[in-house]
Amino acid sequence: MEKKWLEEQVASLRLDEHMALEDIPNLDLYMDQLITLFESNLSHTKRHEDDKLLTKTMINNYTKDKVLMPAHKKKYTKDHIVLMLLLYQLKSIISISDIKDVFSVLKQEDNIDSETLTNLYKACLNSREKEMSYFELGIEKRVDTVNEELDKWGIKDEKIGAALLVFTLIEQAIYHKRLAEIIIDKCIK
């Protein structure tokens, strides 16, 4: 697998783009406005153009499951939006039950500590920058490992090489997920 091509794909992920606190309106939003805010700020994170980042059904289910607080007079506050941004990041990796446990450190019933939530979100964004550089270095090392294995076994087929890289990346994701689940079970629950 060619590193140059892979570097271009990593760049296309636009990992440095996120919704900053300043991008979140200081006024409460109706559900349709909230969905539009997500679509306009996070559409680059979709795998396919017709994928939905957030739907009314998702929001209602998260509220019903008590992952999110209910809307106030059908409007969503900045705290709701920040929680949904964190939820959006987490939901592709861990279960809704685990997300609920993680969010439990931030909220009591339907009340949330806004300052703690804001500071947590800022910390997440700051650590994200460091994680991007670790990710890029890790990709380089994984490509080297994959290429060494392909050479070692005399495999020339590029699709086999791509499949091996996929397995390697997924294996790493599994390790991270399992460690996150242990932390949730032993430190948060």
Number of DSSP strand runs: 4
Number of helices: 7
How large a portion of the residues is in β-strands, by DSSP E?
Answer: under 5%
Return residue spans where pLDDT drops below 50 for at least 5 consecutive residues: none
Strand order of the largest sheet: 1-2
Sheet with the most strands?
A: 2 strands, antiparallel
Structural class category:
mainly alpha
Rg, nearest Å: 19 Å
Question: What is the 3D form?
Answer: elongated
Q: What is the helical fraction, as a range of percent?
A: 55-70%
Q: What is the CA–CA distance across the termini?
A: 42 Å
Compute the number of structural domains: 1
Give the SSE order as H and E letters.
HEHHEHHEEHH
Mean pLDDT figure: 94
InterPro entries: DUF1836
Protein name: DUF1836 domain-containing protein
Organism: Holtiella tumoricola
Pfam families: DUF1836
